[in-house]
Amino acid sequence: MLTVAPLCPAMERLGMLAACLLCWSCGVCLVSAIRRTDMYPYGPQSGDQVLAEGDDETSRVLPLSRPLTFYRTRFSQLYVATNGIISAQDLPMEKQYVDDGFPTDFPAVAPFLADIDTSGGRGQIYYRVTETPGVLNRVEVHQGFPDAKFTPTVAVVATWENVAAYEEQTRTTGPSSKVNTFQAVIGYDETDSYVIFLYPEGGLNFFGTRPKESYNVEIELPARVGFSRGEIPYLIFSRIEGPHYSVTSNEQSVKNLYQVGNTGIPGVWLFHTGNSYYFDNIVPASFSDNTFGTDNQEEEDDYLLTDGDPEFQTGPTGDHSASPDAPSSPSEEPSRQAVYDIGNVPLTSEPKYNSEPGERQYAPPNSPERAPVGGAQQQPQVTQNHSRFQQECSQNAFCSDYATGFCCHCRPGFYGNGRHCLPEGAPQRVSGKVNGTVTVGSTPVELNNIDLHAYIVVGDGRAYTAISEVPEPVGWALMPLAPIGELFGWLFALELPNSQAGFKITGAEFTRHAEAIFYPGNQRLSIVQTGHGIDNHNHLNVDTVVSGSVPFLPSGSEVTMDPFKEIYQYYPSVATSYSVREFSVVSAERGSESFSFQLKQNITYRDCRHDNRAGVPETLQITMERVFVMYVKEERILRYAITNKISPVGAEPTEPELVNPCYAGNHDCDTTAQCLPQQGQDFLCQCATGYRGDGRNCYDVDECAEGSSSCGAHAQCVNLPGSHSCQCQGGFEFGFDRRSCVDIDECSSSPCHISARCINALGSFQCQCEPGFYGDGFHCSQQEVRPKSQCEQHRDSLQGGREHGSRPSLAAFVPQCDSDGRYRPLQCHGSTGHCWCVDVRGQERAGTRTPPGTPPKDYEPERPKTHCEHHRDRVQTSSPEGYPVVGAYVPQCDAGGQYTPLQCHGSTGHCWCVDSRGQERTGTRTPPGAPPTDYEPERPKTHCEHHRDRVQTTSPEGYPIVGAYVPQCDDNGRYASLQCHGSTGHCWCVDSTGQERAGTRTPPGSPPKDCDRPVPVAPTEHPESVCERWRASLIEHYGGKPQPEQYVPQCEQDGQFSPVQCYGETTYCWCVDQDGREVPGTRSYDIVKPACLPSAAPPTVRPLPRPDVTPPPNADITLLYAQGQKIGALPLNGTRLDAARSKTLLTLHGSIVVGIAHDCKENHVYWTDLSARTINRASMAAGAEPEILINTNLVSPEGLAVDAKRRLMFWVDSNPDVIESANLDGSGRRTLFSTDLVNPRAIIVVSSTGTLYWTDWNREAPKIESASVDGQNRRVVVTDGVGLPNALTYDSSSGQVCWADAGTKRLECVSPDGSGRRVVHPSLNYPFSMVYYGNHFYYTDWRRDGVIAVSKESSQITDEYLPDQRSHLYGIAIATTHCLSGNLKIYKILPSRCHPASVAPRSLV
């Protein structure tokens, strides 16, 4: 960084220079000239524009955001020219000024006015207007102008890099190698302007240029450096020469530009160039001797906060002044002359900012806040050990001491600002409340403590936000306010190189102020979001307050917001941004409307700048690639889904193919894994800290169960996703390291009576009355009689009327005390007759109150809980639902409440001995499998074993009751999948919980069902629901035995979706709505499942919305995909997925769309419906309605193919295991194959050859077969090396059949005769369906819940599309405007018929 202030104080202040400081007697530092790295940042990476190459080029007009005062005139635009000059008006031809001296006829700022030529790539000229704090902070003028009251608001930076002098073409010598580099910076505010010229060391190699019309006379004119106002009006019609100022006069003065300066820094020149009230001529900076004296002080501000936070305090200072024996001039001791490397040293005293960035405050010269400079410079030093402040840091951070204070830094594997650190790569959750008043139109609506939840997939930057219980008028109106959820996207955005997501800067404590102003209407809404830290579950806690007004949006409106980019500017302790957003609203009442709003925001946070590390870039760009907003009226939920990436400004690559998948977000790493970019398109998946796996499948590590936690003595470990937390036992508190627990000295708070002494004990304390006093230590008296107890004082105060100084009320409740003064366990109200039980403090025990005339509750006095019982009960109710946290150690207590001498951890198997306080006895711990003395540890019994043992000991004698059913458990204690009743002979299949699977019971003597194979579900009292159909379909897909980590829908007894859905037996759970759609922002990896509310209303007799077709965007090629209850349309732009134009083609409530196909001749889409058991079609014209083609004798219709040439369709039914065909109108139905099929899934038809291909993922013998379309010539194409061949397509360019296998994870191709087999991609996730087009394969993926593109040539994943609503995608098909077949005859879609078209032949299936 660069300054115009003297270097010595600034460099010492930051501790970045050696101690060999040598100063002149006047106090001026002896330093070398500036280097190029000290110049203001320039180039395209800094947002600069580049001037065109040439000999006499002038930039386009450079508009200024605020007027610039030059001399006394205000200008609103500038121009940058090749010839080392900046002007406020368009420049004339160079021959009119370049060879002349000052003044010029036009306003000019000339850092090096000469005949410069950048033709042929000889140098570049950069320029920009900026308001970034990193630049403004460096335009510091107070050392040169001590009385200036100047705070720059705008800067103009122009840089001439390696530019050459003009040379005549006729000269015999070759082009000169001499080039110059220099820079001009104009900084200004509302009234003043200052200019800095910078000439780096080695930057000037020519000092003048030859006139173009020198007529071969060897003459060189020195460059002109200075300022000119230009001509100014005189009288009415005349103009006269305005004021001007020259810095150079001859060649030697030009050479001096980088050797000296007027700022004390060689090569740096500062000038006051304008004032709007009074200005005569340019004023150069002046640094007199006393400027560097001890009376002048330099700001020593590290952005201290006023809350006394030790992280931000400056320690005492020590004297590091220069030696008084220093020579009076450099020549006296040249060996001690210091030449400093100032490349990384900020050469400016940084301004102090308020929380509002618009109000910059600079400490004035000679302010008490400014530290002494020159010979009296002091260096801060630390007098306190940083371990005292370790508790200020996250438990996943370390504390570092610096000269001016301490800072926290996250440990490897974690990220944040040190005070708050989270596991790298792990998804993050946010929870909080929303409050405020929003006026919709003219109606104010209160938002009172409603819930906000957010879920962010850090690996690809997706942020989902949901706000519940939002009243309807506000719900519709707040849809455009995606900025509410954008905060979380900024905090955890996908980071491109050289960028940082917000959480690394702010941590979890911050305040965001945002204001949205809507147009038209001028409504204003304020948004204040406050981060309160991280809770015990590692969730960020953020509260939101909204207030103001928003435009009214009709009920049922749809809001669309296009992707956009926003630039964040970073100041110390504050980040700001400004943007204008446009959005469109479509409603039935008002049609389509366009709106916009202006958004201003700042985010303030605590900053630590003691470490002098590389700071945050001054500007970063957030790119929001997809913005999805929705209000669900029935559930009153407002949802935002945004995909976010953060990068340097302008740093995005122009070719998407060149983006590494880690930066594009289309990698296949687990959501709890980091994507590590490698060379080119390669990347590695690494499970996040606290997770274990191969990177594509990661599972939480239970540090508590494995004994790898960082918790110390007297601390309880609680596992969290990716981490763990330590909780102190009662009577203990955290020590400085936030991990070990130390005893609380309760006596320090004087809890005992004044006449008692307090005895502190480990985890507790005791009060004892002094000798001569009597009582319990809390109440002591000198009376030999027992002092009154709490109950007696309570009773007497009521009976004596002393409570509140009033008389006793006749109807008042008077407590009853026993002979020892304790509350009687049963209390009754003498007036009302109500009775209830109380505890030892007289507090009513819940559920014990009885009305008059009824017998009171039986009461058994409870003894006070012991330390062991408190410890045990606290662990057993650690979760929000009051259940024990899985994997947590639960102490074992005996009947008297004392710790049993032998303690064992139920999860880890470790055992150890403890003393009476529950503390482990050293040397007694034994590992799992090594039983302690006289003790044989047993595996905890499973549910099945408890069930079995309970039945087997049911009789009074402890024997099983004759004829009772005894469940059978396997070796691991789980229910055997086949259960049989030993007495009756009945057998049946059960699930993992031992519940009978409907339809599997067989009578005695008949063969039992194969429980490893799914069976048809018997009819229930209600029609089979969507959830039940989906569940049965997936169980069949998984071969009847889903793995613990596989998803099977969970259904309620009435068939509706359970509000909480989980992946198998894992803790990966989320909430769903009544249709089974995931509720964004509810995904959880916690042991405790998310708290989901049922959203399914009782069935009502009302029509669902009519399923009208919404035509896809106008595109030659569109991918159609099935996603549960809808069919989506995804256009292709070439071979790229055009996510911005994706839309829903057709919504089908209550359906499960699986197979999908397109008829290119009549432009119809066909699909199979697993829920309704139908095959359907619809025209892709606007407003078209679905048509049912076949609705009988279908059980599980899946794969579907259309032969547009023969007007036939083909499908597979995976329950009866048949392949059938019919005409496209549903007539002519026939069965092609019904034998030797086990689980047929995908089917395609190659119209050009009349061939069918299908997959059969029979787990014992999977295969791919083919036959002719009439059912003849059936044969096997592939049997070896296949597992679950889900997806199938045809590569018309090679004539090969290709499939994607969910078992082997490979994408392979083979010729129809079985030859030429090759692997296209070796490691897919979970493919379901696939198509081929344009040398690319496009498949739906159940792991990513999206559409993935794979290049056949590179075998790389090239693109990815993730719908905003996350759920499994099924079939995929291609809709085209032309029938693309393998022959030369190509059809173009016209209404109801096809016509040949002269289009180059292409093919696809």
From TrEMBL:
Biased composition (Acidic residues): 296-310
NIDO domain sequence ranges: 111-276
PROSITE patterns: ASX_HYDROXYL, EGF_2, EGF_3, EGF_CA, LDLRB, NIDO, NIDOGEN_G2, THYROGLOBULIN_1_1
Chain spans, region Disordered: 290-387, 845-883, 918-944, 998-1018
Residue ranges, compositional bias (Polar residues): 376-387
Start and end residues of each Nidogen G2 beta-barrel domain: 426-656
InterPro entries: 6-blade_b-propeller_TolB-like (IPR011042), Dev_reg/Prot_inhib (IPR051950), EGF (IPR000742), EGF-like_Ca-bd_dom (IPR001881), EGF-type_Asp/Asn_hydroxyl_site (IPR000152), EGF_Ca-bd_CS (IPR018097), G2_nidogen/fibulin_G2F (IPR006605), GFP (IPR009017)
LDL-receptor class B repeat locations: 1163-1206, 1207-1249, 1250-1294
Segments of skewed composition (Basic and acidic residues): 857-875
Key words, A-Z: Basement membrane, Calcium, Cell adhesion, Disulfide bond, EGF-like domain, Extracellular matrix, Glycoprotein, Repeat, Secreted, Signal
Subcellular localization(s) per the UniProt record: Secreted, Extracellular space, Extracellular matrix, Basement membrane
Single GO biological process annotation from the record: cell-matrix adhesion
Superkingdom, natural source: Eukaryota
SUPFAM superfamilies per the UniProt record, alphabetical: GFP-like, Growth factor receptor domain, Thyroglobulin type-1 domain, YWTD domain
MF GO annotations: calcium ion binding
Cystine pairs: C828-C835, C904-C911, C980-C987, C1062-C1069
Cellular-component GO terms for this entry: basement membrane; extracellular space
Gene3D superfamilies: Green fluorescent protein, Laminin, Thyroglobulin type-1, TolB, C-terminal domain
UniProt domain EGF-like: residue ranges: 658-699, 700-742, 743-781
Compositional bias (Low complexity): 321-332
Domain Thyroglobulin type-1, chain residue ranges per copy: 788-868, 876-934, 941-1011, 1024-1092
Name listed for the protein in its UniProt record: Nidogen 2
Organism whose genome encodes this protein: Gasterosteus aculeatus aculeatus
